[in-house]
Amino acid sequence: MLSRFSTTAFAGLRIPSLTQTTSLLSAPSVPSSMSSMWAISHMFSSAAGANKAKTPEQAAKLKAKSLQEKEKLKQQKEKERAKKVALREKEMQAKKAAKEKLKLQKEKEKLKEREDKEKAKKAEVKAAKAERPKRPLTPFLVYVREKFATAAEKSTTEKIASLATSFKALSPLERQHLESVAATDKARYKEQMEKYNAKKEEEKKDRPERRNPFSKFVKSTYQKGDPALLSLPFKERSQRISSLWKSLSEQQKKAYDS
């Protein structure tokens, strides 16, 4: 029966093992009369199929396909990595922009706060000047006030220069009127300043004392009038007072914090 197969049919075929051959020959599903022929035919057809799947062309194709899949997977990973890098860069740029925006906002707030303080200070100075009595007029200023509107010159500088010349040429009798008006205005200024100063003194008394505990301690130390301390040079005296302050307990320091 084996003689029917040419020698070329066996070339390059993988011959099954004895165990595989025995198993095939004893298969119950094959008729006994055909078992030997079926087993040998199945054995060699399986071997031929296995060898057919491993031909050089197919192996090359499988290898090429595997390389393509690996390259595709590599490209996909590269894309994902690039996407993550771009997303991280975008997040960093957003954080940087938010930080810059916050910094700019804080700078604007500081600038506005400084401008508000300056405006408040200017308004306070202006209000203080408005509250303070106006200085008294001198005889020359009384003369300028009376004659300025009727002066022939056009510019203010020319008018003042012309009035100064004419003022010097006034007689003692003409000056008497100007001096009388100036004296009345001086009395007005003196009276208003007395009231103004008295008001400021009252405000100063009502204003809380703005001294830290150490400043109060220094003031108290000077008020005691210790001759040995006061006779020291200023630098040594300051160092001595500072040492005395440091030697006090926290409870003693609290007495100057009220």
Topology:
Elements: H1 18-25, H2 35-52, H3 56-131, H4 139-147, H5 156-168, H6 172-206, H7 213-224, H8 227-230, H9 234-247, H10 250-254
Helix pairs in contact: 4-5, 4-6
What does this structure look like?
This protein is mostly helical and 258 residues long. The protein has 10 helices and no strands. 75% of the residues lie in helices and 0% in strands. Helix 4 crosses helix 5 and helix 4 packs across helix 6. The N and C termini lie far apart (126 Å).
Question: What key phrases describe this protein's structure?
Answer:
258 residues, mainly alpha, disordered N terminus
How would you sum up this structure in a few lines?
The chain has 258 residues and is mostly helical.
- Rg, Å, rounded: 57 Å
Average pLDDT = 80
Helical amount: over 70%
Distance between the termini: 126 Å
Q: Give the low-pLDDT segments.
A: 1-16, 27-34
Give the amount of beta strand, in percent: under 5%
- Global structural class: mainly alpha
Q: N-to-C SSE series?
A: HHHHHHHHHH
Shape call: elongated
Number of helical segments?
10
* Beta-strand segment tally: 0
Characterize the largest beta sheet: strand count, sense, and whether it forms a barrel.
none
